[in-house]
Fold these 2 entries.
Entry 1:
Amino acid sequence: LSADKYNVRRKAFASIQARDVDYFKSVLGEERVLTDEADVLPFNIDWIKNCRGQSSVVLKPKTTQEVSNILSYCNQRKLAVCPQGGNTGLVGGSVPVFDEIVINFMLMNKIISLDDVSGALTCEAGCILENLDNYAREHNLIMPLDLGAKGTCHIGGNVSTNAGGVRLLRYGNLHGSILGVEAVKADGTIIDCLKALKKDNTGYHLKHLFIGSEGTLGLVTKVAIHCPVKPKAVTVGFFGVENFDNILQLYKSAKSSLGEILSAFEMADNGAISTTSKNLKLPNPISDYPFYVLVETQGSNEVHDEEKLTKFLSKEMESGLILDGTVTSEPAKMNTIWTLRESISGAGLARGYVFKYDVSLPQQNYYDLVPILRERLGDKAIGVYGYGHIGDGNIHINITVPEYSKEIASLMEPFIFEEVAKLKGSISAEHGIGFRKPQYMHYSKDESSLQMMRDLKNLMDPNGILNPYKVLPEVNV
Ligand code: FAD
């Protein structure tokens, strides 16, 4: 249980009674209120199987009004809630810690409208990212974000975590792409900021409060998002590289050679690719190299784009920055390369437990922590490897161990966050703070910023019922 593992005490919320369950059933009907232990269990465990809560009730609203009724009741009764999307979050934010009521958005999955002139797509929070992308593609558009969990994560979860992903380099983060949000405050008030306008400078930009606040300020019920035009041509290159410095040189060169068509620039070290390839039996299209780089272009002219990337490959093979590589526009081959890259996140789980870190660092220092951690952990770790979105300075460090141990955890934390702070990085690049990182927030935020966050929380959720134990550090820490 998360509470024992991380030594957290339950706050003084009310405990759920039979009359509460009766009330929820009166709002949602019998089938959308889960109370059977076996039914509730999967909603209590996070994707990485690190956190486990003890909730006895899962609610599945279908409308904003139902969410509002639930929250208004919970607020009056001082019952704590844990909002949940696809439950793919990697920092334990999406599962309860104690007996918080889970409010899962899976049934709020309707697409409301798509304006194929402006590209504005409006939908409910529980729509699965991949379904939205498929829908947008039918209208010659795409979703501006893409991540390995796309087949499961919800757009409401993406907004609540301000998810990044592999195309942030090209389309920016969700603070730019989200046009509007509808959300419900802790007391049940519905906040309608669902405008689908590109420009709307009418006072405070309230929608931004819900982007990245991980369900602690309100529950996102609807989203309007700007979808870019579907690229006519996509080309992917996968390259072997000798050392990390060469990756940085290559990134610089890719920006100038590929310019406006560059849509992703990802890296992975040998450990990341070989573990994924071995554990998940996925083919690696080139042979064994110390580092790998995946470059994607999205443009409007296939011949021209592929030629540009192929030229880039031959130029950089000549310069020695690339040791070997392949370039393709064939969907099946591109898919093989992307699958290898996107499967790294879960590959270590096949052989034990994985400590996962998601940090931002200045690009010069991007890979510094991997060798430091390797040395620190020695043979206590099966593997320490780094991969991620180098264009955004965002590295993921995975440490695979035979099983979770407090000793190994204490060797890494707070050490890794101290190192990140020394390098002026961020302790969370894109996964959020969730349950796993509030006590380390001070490495990335000063005390006055933290106080302002607490003030906002008190204003919007005075009883603290929304996703307690998450994001905000305890005052005495
Ligand atoms: P959940 O995990 O259910 O919830 C995440 C947080 O948001 C929780 O705090 C939850 O309480 C809150 N929340 C969920 N829905 C709502 C709502 N409607 N209203 C209010 N609060 C809500 N992340 C990236 O940023 N980039 C990546 O490249 C990336 N790759 C991944 C690859 C894999 C294989 C996996 C498993 C995860 C990856 N992630 C990545 C992490 C994760 O997918 C994202 O954080 C995603 O945005 C979470 O969406 P979700 O619907 O699963 O939310």
Entry 2:
Amino acid sequence: AVFEIPEHYYPEKYKELANNPISMLSDRLGEEPARMIPVRNIEIPDLSLPMELPFNEQFSVFIPKHQLMATRLIDVFMGMKDLEDLQSICAYCQLRINPYMFNYCLSVAILHRPDTKGMDIPTFVETFPDMFMDPKVFRKAREISNVLGPGERMPLTIPVNFTASDEEPEQRVAYFREDIGVNLHHRHWHLVYPFDAGDIAIVDKDRRGELFYYMHQQVIARFDIERLCNDLPRVKRYFDFKEPVEEAYFPKLDSMVAGRTWPYRHAGTMLRDLDRPLELIKLEISDLERWRERFIHAVESSSVMLPNGVTIPLDEETGIDILGNIMESSAISVNRSYYGNFHNMGHVFISYSHDPDHHHLEPFSVMADSAVAMRDPTFYRWHSYIDDLFQLYKYNLPPYGDKLIFPGIQVSSLKVEGPAGDNTLSTFWELSTLDLARGMDFTPRGAVFARFTHLQHEEFTYVIEVNNTTDKSVMGTVRLFMAPRDDEEGNPLPFDEQRRHMIELDKFTAPLSPGKNTVRQRSVDSSVTIPYERTFGDQRERPGDPGTPESAGFDFCGCGWPHHLLIPKGTKEGYPVILFVMISNWDDDKVEQDLVGSCNDAASYCGIRDRKYPDRRAMGFPFDRAAPGTAALAHFLSHNMAVRELSIRFTDTTKLHAKTRR
Ligand code: CUO
């Protein structure tokens, strides 16, 4: 199809295209378009601010000036009265607005406009494949597409671990940091929960500050287990801004928008004050330190100060949410001018550490873009510090104590069944396929496939025996977590450390009749993850195109931890982890709301669109608070809880994804 675009929408240099779009495009595509789509001629709103960003520049919402531009553009997209007007403004913007900013703002608008909810747009990895893979693959793709027709192109293989050698210890967890699904999840989360937008309703979602804390806390906990599986110490928090950043990162990514390579950072780089007038950034390290002091003061006094000087207490229910918004910071921070922008600006300081004063005209590094930030080892050092600051608050809360008990409910056994045998989980490498064509301007056109390697596991089933000793049927919330058994030295983890390493695996409700109940839950139904197909697209073959998968769609439902990383890699010998289950009383947990038609299968880290977070308990419950005096997990357990040691066995073989294999 070809869009019939009003002539005045075209920038001067493309005017010729306006006069004869069909012949120009059919020359380019090598085929006649099947249909014409007229684009409504509307009065174009003022776009001068977003148009200030050059077409070929990097864009980041962390850069205050870019944020202002994006806010304006999101407002414009949100303000279009119907879909046709939205399409029209997109046609106008397409050739004028920085493509990366355009994609960001349109994605936010599509996620938040009532008339575009549920609309599928191509997954980001297919529109901007340059953000996820070795640029060498694009050169090859171009070669192939020139020589071979669409049906004859064999998939290209993206090398595994291409960013550093095995001499670099951090490289042992590159499969996690540079995983396409992990980075898509992170980008998607920040699209669903932007920290700024003209329309405050886009920011002001139920418990978004708490979710900011919890989702990132879980990322660090997950990363730490992967590190332990790979003989690396747990992440060291980065908090002394006078200390050099030890970790180097050389992303080896080319930005197609900017036509440049993403900047790298040497080992031992110091953070320095930032003075980059072009981006309206003038910040001192002492600003970060001051914001941190104020945050810590809020935690210690258990209160926050409003802009009018009035102090309000932090209560057990909303305290963490308020602190999350202050910390990030988001537009709903209770006092942004006082508490500042600690977390976001930490990203910015690290992202400009290679060129703090813009003398070398270098853009920011990966740390300033949520689509690529998780690739950098510093991401985890920064966020584990952020988490420590949140934990300071959590340590001040009273322990749950008796609130953990569910009278009459006893978990009598817990186990896992799967192809690797009872209580053994199995992981391996898997090859999946993506279409690069959408993100590249090929002639002649047609799909070009790239194969990449990622971790995968065999699916399994949790089997939980529950005895309801009351004479009434009740509803329980089943909460499943996993943590490492030992520390780096092989010593059992003390409870207070282990609880902070608990990763959520699933949470669901189960009816419990009087007497014995067997609750079976499949790993694929996890409330943490989205199915593989929603991360990477349906890997089933396209009819008539052997070896080529269907494309992935994307909407709110695209938010969720990638299922292929539900469990850590483990080791060849079998890595010991502790599986934990708790059943709490649904009457105390439930949130009355209608979930019909909403996508709620990855609510644990992403919430539910237009709804409340579907669990009244604190996120991470029961492990979000300390339990002073509890030395080991065994002493924490009440009747409604159980643990089981599992072994995660990694097999170093690579399989083609099951659906492609067929
Ligand atoms: Cu997601 Cu720091 O918030 O990267």
